[in-house]
Structures are given as C-alpha cells and as structure tokens.
Amino acid sequence: MKSIIGALTLTGLLLTSVVAADKPNFVIIYTDDQGYGDISAYGKTDIVTPNMDRIGKEGMLFTNMRANCTVCTPSRAALLTGIYADRAGAPGVIRTEPERSYGYLDPSVPTLADELNKVGYHTALVGKWHLGIEAPNIPNDRGFDFFHGFLGDMMNDYYNCKRGGINFLRRDKEVVQPTKHATDMFTDWAIDYLNDRNGKKDEPFFLFLAYNAPHFPIQPPKEWVEKVSKRQPEMDANRVKSVAFVEHLDAAIGRVLETLDESGLAENTVVVFTSDNGGSIQHHQNNDPWRGGKQDHYDGGLKVPFSVRWPGQVKSGTTSDYQGLTFDIFATFIDIAGGELRDDLDAVSLLPLIKGEEFQTPGRELYFVRREGGGHAGKAYQAIIVDGWKLMQNDPFSPLELYNLNEDPYEEKDLAASENKKFQKLSKRLSHHIQRGGATPWQKPLK
C-alpha cells in the first residue's frame, strides 16, 4: 500500500512539475511618468532607448494604449485588480499623510498576485508600491510572496530614497537602507530575484518591477547628463537632464533583459513594458504627439508606451493599434496562466491579439477617474471614450469637453456645444461609471 501511495505521490509531483514548466513566467517593467514621446520606439529623435525599444522589436509594440489614470495610484490599483480604480477604492493618490490621501485600496479585492498564487506562481514586487504603507495594504498582505522596494509615493531624493524625511524602503516588512541610486538599486534587487528563481524552474514566477524613475525630482547620475550633453550640445539643459534620466533607466532595463537572456529564462517569460501615466510637461518630459501631460485627461496624460515580448508566441516586429488600457495585463496574464477570469473584471485578455489570432474587439467603454485634494478640494474629475468619442473634464471646475478622436486625434476641436445628442449620450454613460465606482469606499476613516 505504501509503495502505491508513494508511486501516486511521485506521479503527482511529476505532473505538477510538468504543469509548472509549461506555464510561462511573467515580468512587468513599469516606469513612472514616462511619456509616449520619451521612448525612441515611437519615433522621437532626441532620446535613445534601445532596451525599451527591444521589447517591442522582439514582440509586439502597441501604439494606442492608455494608462488607467493620469496619475500614479489609480493606475497601479487598476493594473493590479483588473477593475477600474474607483471600484478598487483608489480613485486618487494614496499618500503617507492621511489628510492628503485620496484612496484606500479595498482589502477584499483580489490582486494579480493573489490570482497567480492560486495557479502556482511565486510572486514578487521590486520597486515602487504606492498602494498603502500599513497593513492590510502592503505588498506581502496583498498576494506578493516577496517585496523588496519602496512603500511610498515619490522619493524626494533618488539617493537617500526618503519621502518627507521617512525611509520607506523595505525587504518584505523589514526596513532597509539605500546603497545607491534607486534605479540601480531596484535593478540589482530584480536581478537577484531572477537569479534566485533560475534555480527553481519547477515553479513559475511573476515579477512586478516598478521603477520610481523618471518621476521627478529629475535626478540622473552625473555621467549620464554628461553623455547626453556631449551627444546633443544644443539641447536645453533641463531637457538634457530629463533625457539622461530616461536613458539611465533604459540601461538598467537592459541589465534585466540581459539577466533573462543569460539565465535561459527569457524563452519562457512574458515581458510587458509600460508606464503608469504620461510625462510631466513642467519637468520637460515628452508626450508627443498627444495634447497635454500628466494630470490631464487629454491623451498626453493617458497614452503610454506599451509592448509585449513572449518568444515563440508573440511574433517579433509586430505592431497593434488596439485601443486598450494597461490593466488589460491583469486579464491577459491570468488567461495565459490558466486561471479563472472573474465576471466582475473590467479588464479584457489580449491573449488572442498578441498571438496573432482572431480577436473580437470588445465593445468596451474606456473610463478614467482622478480624485485629488489641494486646489481640487477633494473633488473628482472623469473621462470616457465610447466608439472614438471622448467626453472629459480636465479638472473638477472646468466644463465638460467633447472630442471626436476618429477625426481629431489631437483633441483640437471641442464639440460639446455642437454635438448635443452625443454629449448627452456619453454623459449618461459617464454617470453610470461614477455611480458604479461610488459603491466602493475610497477613504479610510480619519482619526
């Protein structure tokens, strides 16, 4: 009897190993405030990003993807839950000071890490979290088996890695000290994780590598500023710093890709590269050719770089003009991993699209929300895109604007006064999303 049980157990282990080996690994490389025009894959000539470009060249480059929000927290909340940010309890920026915080990630909503845990994945977050600084909303509480990064929002300095004088660097729940520029440090930590997982190939992994760069303060290492200045001496000094910051980040991403190559992991790893929102115009970041930038609901604040590489599955050198949202990564990864896609998801799986198969474009409304304090007085403003028409507000106190993106992709002609029927139709649909999101509390009770 014991021998039979032993044989069955061994068979089970072998089957588990085979299943695990068949599942690809997942890596998301997520940058912060990187505009559509700040990656050379989209044709910009004043910036050189060979490693970011490489992901699209060796896979599929998307030309019309939008982030879920025009600022950090809501985009991250949507990406990691597969639902719109207000439904996840995070319509605004979560900050370290409760009185300035405009979101509270709903602890009952499963994250992408939770869902991948269910189907046998080891999950890790390296870098920026920005979804809470205390239980139950720190990475290890929200499905990540391993966390090595920064709990807070922005860093006041990329070398001391503090926010408001507080060190938010952690390895799981232990405070750790910075050792170098945050971009290089996060890259080292990601490489350490990949090398560790290379010895455990019977268990697939999900690595969410979320950089703080190129979010301000624009603080590239000196040698990178000198490199860009020498290459383009006519460039404005502020733009030089911004370009150098991105190119330093690009080199770091190159180290991660090189590690995947050298370890042999690359062949069975899906890599997605994208950003959380558009670039900050006042910090000399580039969102061309789109109007506006970070904090705007114009497409300069929403359209972001997006590319997917999956050797043997995604044909290299392909492009897609599909207009989706970055949280579609959630549904895509679960679909690839063989998990169950919940009925309440707003995200859709891009698996057929990236594999070059027939893809039924979902008749989905694209919805955006941002709530903020300060000059916004805690109010929210929204946007919706339906069949190429966009109804939007660019701050809580401005009138709604209406654009026909099919004919006016750069949002130059506001049709709110002349297209009353379309305005009313989209207003009704926008109200539906606002009511739906309002069912989830976004504010933890103040003490």
Describe the 3D structure:
The protein has 447 residues and is of the alpha/beta class. The chain folds into two domains: 332 residues, Alkaline Phosphatase, subunit A, CATH 3.40.720.10; 72 residues, 2-Layer Sandwich (Arylsulfatase, C-terminal domain), CATH 3.30.1120. Helices cover 30% and strands 16% of the residues. The chain has a ten-stranded mixed beta sheet with strand order 8-7-4-3-9-1-10-11-2-12, sandwiched between helices. The chain has a four-stranded antiparallel beta sheet with strand order 13-14-15-16, with helices on one face. Strands 5-6 form a two-stranded antiparallel ribbon. The N terminus is likely disordered.
Number of strands: 16
Strand order of the largest sheet: 8-7-4-3-9-1-10-11-2-12
Q: Which CATH class of the largest domain is shown?
A: Alpha Beta
- What is the SS-derived class? alpha/beta
CATH architecture of the largest domain: 3-Layer(aba) Sandwich
User: In the CATH hierarchy, what is the superfamily of the largest domain?
Assistant: Alkaline Phosphatase, subunit A
Please give the alpha-carbon distance between the first and last residues: 62 Å
What is the chain-wise order of helices and strands? HEHEHHEEEEEEHEHHEHEEHHEEEEH
Percent of residues in β-strands: 15-25%
Counted by DSSP, the helix tally is: 11
CATH topology of the largest domain: Alkaline Phosphatase, subunit A
| Poorly predicted tracts of residues | 1-20
Domains (count): 2
Rg estimate, integer Å: 22 Å
Biggest sheet statistics: 10 strands, mixed
User: Overall mean pLDDT score?
Assistant: 94
